[in-house]
Amino acid sequence: MIVQITTPSRLHFGLIDLNGELGRINGSLGVALENPSWLIHAGESVSPNDTILSEEFKKQFSSFKARFDQQFKTNSKQINFSFVKDIPAHVGLGSKTQFLLGIGALLAKIHHLDLEARPLAKLAERGGTSGIGVAAFTAGGFIVDGGHSFGPGKTTTTFQPSSTSKAPPPPVLFQTPLPASWRFLIITPKGFKGFFGSKEQQLFTECCPVPAREAEQLSRLILMKILPALKEADIQTFGAGLTELQTKFKRFGFEKYSGTIVAELLELVRKQDFIFGSGISSFGPTIFGLTNALKKASQFLEELAQTFSPKRFEILEVTTCNTTGAKINFLKV
Predict the structure, then answer these.
(1) Cβ distance 102 to 40 under 8 Å?
(2) Would you state the CATH architecture of domain 2-331?
(3) How far apart are CA 255 and CA 87, in angstroms?
């Protein structure tokens, strides 16, 4: 038996409340994408292949597989994995969360365990800050999560990224597909990585808490502009809201891209009249642009490749919203 999983990736538009005066922090909004994706095969008859994995991901794979067996009293020594497609790591697309949840879901399927994404996320220590990746894996769509209770005796007591937080995935407040005609341009320049590890932790330590007024204004923008526009399928207002979220509120860590090709490409994206919203996902460097003009978007990406050379990009594509979450199926041997 061979089991195959295809995961979504995700765009992370931002965290909502890094102030904490209301007794809750984090909260986030984002969207699941069809591409790029992890494509992984697993089973005893699979020819093992991890050539596309970095050393970092090989270690994470081995460690998570061992923790899975320990937690659920299983034996996965005879189960082989072949990694066919990947989501680049540390570029703002949620690669690690999808990777670990994908492995967990495959092991659960092979061992006939009825496990949802939440216990797998807890085992993988994902979702401790943002719940977008876990919710994207579960059901796709556009997602808003409600963050974590904050303070002594609460879910979390400090501001920290998901890579170090032990908090469980937050509750999902809103999750719905985007209109079928809406597309996202995904542009990932080579040679850049977003903040992760100790540098990411340092950013949270230095920049939090943010002023309460900023969290209040951001919440109003989401509740009274972005979400209603989505319910009314108003791509112009929805896109304008995403751009405002990215430009009118401090996105700490983004100064590293000043004067680079990342900033240049973002400026080019924002000059296109067929792109209604744009920004940088998570800590970048991935740039996104929202559109409903597939032909114009594809032509624009072709022009970027010609202008800058395809070798300058890790990803250049137009993709849709993932509306199902991860997909598991069986392959004939």
Answers:
(1) yes
(2) 2-Layer Sandwich (3.30)
(3) 25
Parse the chain into domains and list their residue ranges: 2-331
- Burial label, 153 (beta-carbon count in 10 A; 0-12, 13-18, 19+): exposed
> Hey, CA dihedral for 162, 284, 131, 243, is it positive or negative?
positive
Rounded to whole angstroms, the Cα distance separating 311 from 307 reads 11
CB 5 within 8 A of CB 40: yes
Query: Rounded to whole angstroms, how far apart are CA atoms 285 and 194?
Result: 6
- Residues counted in the chain: 333
- Nearest Cα to Cα of residue 36 among 7, 60, 3, 5: 7
Residue 205: Cβ-neighbour burial (10 angstroms; 0-12, 13-18, 19+): exposed
Nearest Cα to 26, choosing from 255, 225, 177, 210? 210
Selection from 256, 138, 117 nearest residue 195 by Cα: 256
Instruction: List the alpha helices (DSSP H) in 73-196.
Output: 95-110, 117-124, 132-139
95-147 pLDDT, tens digit per residue, is 999 999 999 999 999 999 999 999 999 999 999 899 999 999 999 999 999 99
Rounded CA-CA distance 158/208 in Å is 9
In percent, how much of the chain has pLDDT > 70?
A: 98
Q: Which amino acid is at 203?
A: L
CA distance 279 to 287: 6
Report the Cα 196 to chain-centroid distance in Å. 14
For residues 63 and 96, give the distance between their C-alpha atoms in angstroms, rounded to a whole number.
13
Which pTM was predicted? 0.95
Which residues are CB-contacts of 74 (< 8 A; sequence separation ≥ 6)?
A: 68, 107, 111, 113
